[in-house]
Amino acid sequence: MIHGPCGAAYPNAVCMKDEKCTKGFPKPLSEVTKGNVAGYPVYRRRRRAAGVVLINGKEYDNETINQWVVPYNPYLSQKYNCHINVEVSTPITAVKYLYKYVY
Which domain of life is it from (predicted)? Predict the structure, then answer.
């Protein structure tokens, strides 16, 4: 799945607040997956070869598209036949949140 459209070109998008995307898009490009102190990892998003992708009749360059891909798990998407967005979160607040619902 591709997130968007939002950003400077779409200031009235639902996910925009204070001129920034509340979902953190576009994500930074990175050659490897790295841990992050804030709790969310920076996933591998490599630079792609130059080229153009056509989405809904609009042309985008490959590098731009890679920054807008929503994290997902292909196994879960296939098993449940639906879109399932998956992202690792490791701050203590996430553990407290989950613990609250288990006990």
Answer: Eukaryota
